[in-house]
């Protein structure tokens, strides 16, 4: 369930309220007139309501068509717990399940913000690459897993997938720049550090290129692409369903961070065969993630575009419609 706050100019308040009152996926509508002081020459109203997550896109589209994002404000918050029979009825009237609902505007804003180049992104990627390099050198898979946890690279990859799937081309350049600069900086700086360690005699080429437990990093094959595809699907589903977590991040990074760390280590000690293999592993896996993530988003959009028009053809709410057939006062948890 979403809690929505809308600041609307007075000349659009009646239209907005009428739109919300006719929608059976809206609950707990509250109107506070004349409280918005910076909303046009006449001021504006504040409208609060709960909205079933599954039906958020058509409601938000209508609000944007009214010009409320330009002349007012639309704010969405995820309500973890809503104890309300009206909210239960609203969710029952919406198509699908709440956990499957995709709020495209929210995702677009999130991937746009998260994919912008920042020092924190570059530093975390560098730390992940160094940790992966240590894991390869010591042949310790647990260190590889630790590097996967630290790696932040899925944010720009997700923005690329979203931009391609929804044709929001403005997302592509900053996301590609962030990914390229981050990987380039992490690979360059970690290579320099490994080279200094090599010159100081702290590491040797033989140990840097041997280790059965981490040998998969320099053996790109068809399974590399399969894992990348699965990682791309998992990452996109976690993003759209708001189920992202550390374990999903680990699964995604298994195809990227180890390759960057191994590339830098092998380059520093001059083992060119493994440099090429690690670079190929990275390229294959990034391609697999982007293709799978883009296709997953396209399928999700197609499915919801089929579901929501059917919902719109249902009758609008009238008096007495939507009375719960189950116990009232139930709590909905999201």
Number of strands: 6
The assembly state of the depicted protein chains is: single chain
Q: Identify low-pLDDT runs.
A: 311-334
Question: Helix fraction?
Answer: 55-70%
Main β-sheet: number of strands, strand sense, barrel status? 4 strands, antiparallel
Which H/E pattern describes the elements? EHEEHHEEHHHHHHHHHHHE
* Global morphology: elongated
Radius of gyration: 25 Å
Helix count from the secondary structure assignment: 14
State the name of the first-level CATH class of the largest domain.
Mainly Alpha
Estimate the mean pLDDT confidence. Answer: 84
- The total number of structural domains is 2
Instruction: Decide which structural class fits the backbone.
Output: alpha+beta
User: End-to-end distance, in Å?
Assistant: 6 Å
* Strand content bin: 5-15%
Structure description:
It is built from 14 helices and 6 strands. A hairpin with a 7-residue loop joins strand 2 and strand 3. The chain has helices at 10-21, 56-65, 68-71, 85-93, 104-114, 119-138, 141-150, 154-166, 172-199, 205-208, 222-240, 246-253, 257-269, 272-312, and strands at 2-9, 26-36, 44-51, 73-78, 81-83, 331-333. The longest helix has 41 residues, at 272-312. The radius of gyration is 25 Å and the shape is elongated. Helix 6 (119-138) runs antiparallel to helix 7 (141-150), helix 7 crosses helix 12 and helix 8 (154-166) packs across helix 14 (272-312). The strands form 2 sheets. It has a 4-stranded antiparallel β-sheet. It has 2 domains: 2-101, 2-Layer Sandwich (Alpha-Beta Plaits); 107-307, Glycerol uptake facilitator protein (Up-down Bundle). With 334 residues, the chain is of the alpha+beta class.
């Amino acid at each position: 369930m979403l809690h929505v706050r809308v600041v609307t100019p007075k000349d659009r308040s009646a239209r907005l309220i009428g739109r919300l009152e006719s929608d059976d996926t809206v609950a707990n509508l509250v109107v506070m007139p004349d409280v918005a002081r910076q909303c046009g020459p006449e001021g504006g109203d504040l409208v609060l309501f709960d909205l079933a997550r599954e039906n958020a896109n058509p409601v938000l589209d209508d609000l944007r068509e009214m010009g409320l994002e330009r002349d007012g404000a639309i704010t969405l918050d995820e309500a973890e717990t809503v104890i309300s029979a009206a909210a239960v009825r609203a969710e029952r009237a919406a198509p699908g399940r709440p956990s499957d609902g995709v709020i495209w505007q929210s995702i677009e804003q999130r991937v746009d913000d998260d994919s912008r180049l920042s020092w924190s992104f570059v530093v975390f990627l560098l730390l992940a690459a160094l940790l992966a390099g240590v894991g390869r050198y010591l042949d310790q898979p647990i260190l590889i897993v630790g590097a996967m946890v630290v790696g932040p690279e899925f944010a720009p990859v997700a923005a690329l997938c979203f931009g391609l799937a929804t044709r929001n081309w403005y997302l592509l350049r900053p996301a590609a720049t962030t990914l390229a600069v981050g990987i380039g900086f992490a690979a360059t700086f970690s290579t320099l550090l490994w080279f200094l360690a090599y010159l100081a005699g702290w590491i040797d080429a033989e140990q840097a290129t041997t280790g059965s437990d981490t040998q998969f990093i320099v053996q790109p094959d068809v399974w590399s692409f399969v894992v990348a595809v699965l990682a791309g699907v998992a990452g996109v589903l976690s993003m759209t369903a708001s189920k992202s977590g550390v374990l999903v991040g680990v699964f995604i990074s298994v195809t990227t961070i180890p390759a960057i760390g191994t590339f830098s280590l092998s380059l520093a000690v001059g083992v060119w065969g493994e440099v090429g293999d690690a670079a190929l592993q990275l390229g294959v896996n990034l391609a697999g993630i982007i293709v799978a993530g883009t296709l997953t988003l396209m399928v999700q959009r197609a499915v919801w575009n089929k579901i929501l028009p059917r919902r719109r053809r249902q009758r609008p709410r009238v008096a007495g419609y939507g009375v719960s057939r189950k116990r009232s006062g139930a709590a909905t948890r999201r």
